[in-house]
Design goal:
21% helix; alpha+beta; seven-stranded antiparallel β-sheet; four-stranded antiparallel β-sheet; Jelly Rolls; 182 residues
């Protein structure tokens, strides 16, 4: 596969999921990905752990900024941030960009799109599947995978991709952008 690479499996995600479900108020505190005109993420719920600093009136500019800041969920979701930190160490990442949790309900999805700008050129995107079920598909280019809870995948988000949750439970992923050696 050229657009996906399985990095690891068997990651213990139970404590992270428990902590996320105990902090439901964190979902959609920042909705710019959902609300941005032309975004394919209208059906997605997010929790931002690290993201670009969003300045009112300059939202579009923020998406091309390589610098990210910690959001309140960074300290609240310690079990999730420990997954991010473990990945950072294992990959030898020199910089961490955006880190967020994405949730897609059954029957919903992310419309086909390519991530553009400086971020996907600079960072490599990784997905740690926290929860999913059979029928939840992730297409990137001409390849499609069904990610399983506890797996970590590298995804080439510069290539057209889309997700459809045809499964029976929410699809929840921890998405991490990291600067790693090629």
């Amino acid at each position: 596969m050229k657009n996906f690479s399985l990095i690891g499996r068997g990651i213990d995600v139970k404590k992270a999921l428990e902590q996320i479900s105990s902090n439901n108020f964190l979902w959609n505190q920042n909705t710019i990905r959902k609300d941005m005109p032309g975004s394919g993420h209208g059906d997605v719920d997010d929790i931002w752990i690290r993201f670009n600093e969003i300045i009112e009136g300059r939202e579009r500019e923020a998406f091309d900024d390589l610098e990210c800041i910690d959001y309140p969920a960074h300290s609240i979701l310690s079990n999730t941030t420990s997954l991010m930190e473990r990945l950072e160490l294992e990959l030898g990442a020199s910089k961490i960009g955006r880190v967020f949790i994405s949730r897609i309900s059954p029957g919903k999805g992310i419309k086909a799109h390519c991530d553009e700008g400086k971020n996907p050129e600079f960072y490599t995107r990784f997905h740690i599947c926290l929860q999913s079920s059979n029928g939840c598909t992730f297409r990137c280019g001409d390849e499609t995978v069904e990610m399983v809870a506890g797996e970590c995948w590298r995804v080439d988000n510069k290539v057209e991709h889309e997700v459809f949750n045809g499964g029976s439970v929410d699809r929840i992923h921890l998405i991490c952008d990291m600067r790693v050696k090629a």
